[in-house]
Amino acid sequence: MRTRSASTVSDGFRANFLHGQTPRSPGAGWLKGKLPKFLRNLRGQDSVNIAPTTDGNQSPSEEEPENVILTFEQNLEERLFREASQLLIEREEHLCWETTETESLKCNEEEVNNLAADHRTLERRILETLERSLSLSDVSSEALMSAVKAIDQEDEQDQLWRQRDRTPPRWRPSGWKELHNTTLHSLVKDRMDNPKTPSVNQVEQSSVEAHICSMARQLKKDLLCVVDEVKTCYPPEADICNFYARLYHQTFSDILRKITDFGLEDKDCTFLLLWVNSHYPELLQNPKLTSEINTEALGKLLPKDILESLEDQYLSKQQNDLTTYISRVLEEAKQKWSEGEEPTREDGCYRSPVADDIIQLIYGMVTSAEKVVGDLHKAQSLTSELGGLMQSFKSFQDDVIRQNKANSKAFVKANLGCVEQFRDVLNKNDHLFLENVRESCLCVLTDMKESAHTYLLSPVHETLRPHYRKLGTSDWLNKPLFEKLLVSIETEIQGLRGSKESCHRELISQFHQEVTVVYVKRLLKGEVKLKDKEWQKKAYMTVTDNADSLHSLFFEMGSREDWLKEILTKIAEVLKLQELPAIQMQVASLGSAFPDLSEKHISALLKLKTNLSRADRKRAKATLSDTLREIGVAGARPFFSKVQVR
Question: Does the pLDDT value for residue 503 go beyond 80?
Answer without folding.
Answer: yes
